């Protein structure tokens, strides 16, 4: 129950779109499933190259419910133009595998390809995955932090497999962006208030 006693499902939803980029095999799909469903299965999943999932965070505000829409595009997928993939995204998470230097190099290349224009305004986060494989690590935390700092990005280390830091990372970024959005003076003006005769569809989120 939200603070003003409004049932959570009746709160207005504020959508924040996250995108995944990064090297093939860095663990994007497994991280998405870990966060959205809290599971990790060893067998590989064929998600046809692109997938998205919703995750809700309640009790942040008496009036609004955070709805994270998280997009995962396989590195090798040619579906969706970059313009379509990046549109309306608030944050891009660039993944690499801490046991694979090639994957780190791919993340560097991916970072260069992120569009930064007035139409595409994103925060960028670098994510080193598979820290459960510490004995096989080839990218040190220090090297990754330096790379992130050089690109004005924040760095997170996670393990989708062992469920280390995955929920903390997305919850932290999601909450920060949520408060930034609802504290924006333009927010209430842009956002259409639902009327009793025309409630917003339950399956959708408000896109700002
Ligand atoms: N040890 C370990 N293995 C992981 C972890 N995350 C993913 N993997 C494994 O790494 C492989 C690739 O994971 P995916 O999630 O499919 O990687 P991806 O980034 O989605 O790859 P593409 O879709 O090809 O771009 C799979 O065999 C996973 O089981 C992790 O945290 N630790
Ligand atoms: Mg994948």
From TrEMBL:
Transmembrane segments: none annotated. Signal peptide: none annotated. PROSITE patterns: RAB. The lineage of its organism: Eukaryota, Amoebozoa, Evosea, Eumycetozoa, Dictyostelia. Gene3D superfamilies: P-loop containing nucleotide triphosphate hydrolases. Keywords: GTP-binding, Nucleotide-binding. PANTHER family: LD44762P. One of its GO terms (molecular function) is GTPase activity. Belongs to the small GTPase superfamily. Rab family. This is Rab GTPase. It comes from Polysphondylium violaceum.
């Amino acid at each position: 129950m939200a603070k003003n006693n409004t049932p959570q499902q009746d709160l207005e939803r504020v959508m924040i779109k996250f995108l995944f980029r990064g090297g093939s095999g860095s663990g994007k799909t497994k991280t998405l499933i870990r966060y959205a469903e809290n599971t990790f299965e060893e067998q590989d999943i064929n998600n046809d190259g692109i997938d998205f999932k919703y995750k809700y965070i309640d009790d942040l505000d008496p009036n609004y419910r955070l709805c994270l829409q998280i997009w995962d595009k396989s590195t090798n997928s040619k579906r969706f133009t970059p313009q379509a993939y990046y549109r309306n995204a608030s944050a891009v998470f660039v993944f690499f595998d801490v046991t694979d230097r090639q994957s780190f190099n791919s993340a560097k290349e991916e970072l260069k390809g992120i569009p930064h224009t007035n139409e595409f305004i994103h925060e960028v986060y670098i994510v080193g995955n598979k820290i459960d494989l510490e004995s096989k690590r080839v990218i040190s935390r220090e090297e990754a932090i330096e790379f992130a700092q050089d690109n004005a990005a924040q760095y997170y280390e996670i393990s989708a497999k062992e469920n280390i830091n995955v929920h903390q990372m997305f919850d932290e970024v999601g909450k920060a962006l949520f408060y930034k959005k609802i504290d924006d003076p333009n927010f209430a003006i842009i956002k259409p208030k639902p009327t009793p005769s025309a409630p917003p569809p339950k399956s959708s989120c408000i896109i700002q």
